[in-house]
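Q: Convert this sequence to structure tokens.
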Amino acid sequence: MASAVDAKILRRKIGSLWDDEVYADFAIIYGYEEEFVKPAHRAIICTRSRWFKNACKEHFKEGRTGTIKLTSDDPDVIEAALHFLYFAHYANISDPEDTRLTLHFQAKVYAFAEKILSTTLKNFVVKKVSEHLESAGGYDRTDFMEAVGVVYESTCWMHDVLRKRLVRQAEANRSWLFKGEELREMLEGVPAFAADLVYRGVKGAM
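A:
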């Protein structure tokens, strides 16, 4: 049975392939103008993403050419997601200025994880968002609302883990989160979020 030390060594070895082009057997082209190319390794990306695993099959063009284009997604989000597939993290936690720590950005990573069918990445984002929401430094109200919009636009069922986490947070801090017209704007803009809030409130009152 592998020990924690063995697992750490393995993660380090996988991470060492991040800049490797010698053994790379796949290329990910991204950026709105296809300005970035990331050499990748099927053995890594396909074991952590069912979407990449399917795309790499020989009966798909991407599998035959060894190239895939992701030009409709935020390149920073794609890079963060790919970084996670190699390193099991994507943000510099020690740097408070790292924009990848905002709730909004992490919600976008969650949406991309939903797209590429990566459960491990989704679970990591939920963990990081929860830590952010529970941190002593608190969180920005606008950042929270933007995150809600992204998550509800990219997921489609009420049992989604991050949806439930955001609803729970909103209910616990509703007097601070929703001031003035902000509550109305949020509920009108994301009706599914409004429905989840009402459902949770009614269920709790029963």
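The two ends are 47 Å apart (CA to CA).
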